[in-house]
Hints:
Layout: E1 14-21, H1 26-37, H2 44-61, E2 70-78, E3 81-88, H3 109-116, E4 119-125, E5 128-136
Helix pairs in contact: 1-2, 2-3
Amino acid sequence: xxxxxxxxxxxxxxxxxxxxxxxxxxxxxxxxxxxxxxxxxxxxxxxxxxxxxxxxxxxxxxxxxxxxxxxxxxxxxxxxxxxxxxxxxxxxxxxxxxxxxxxxxxxxxxxxxxxxxxxxxxxxxxxxxxxxxxxxxxxxx
Length: 141
């Protein structure tokens, strides 16, 4: 009788999700949430920058920033990949990585994410949408 060798089990992806009220002070709480979950991540600064930008965009440009608004953050870690997603309550515009004017005080966030993340994208409509940035790298064992 021979023993059949089973392939090594792959660890299951880790997923965390949390809802936040729509106040501007929640950006700090969202960064803390992400930072605690991904302690030791070699590209944590980039992930935190993306999370902050996505939260601030949700608060400034969607219904999430209005009285009674809210937003959700989801973090998924799957091996060397980390995806950070922010789901808002929708708004009139669509997320776009634009080239801001040299002296503009805003408008560079999604462009920065597009340059630091492995990929980014969004889905949804004026009633709600999710913007996701995916980062890849090697974690220490």
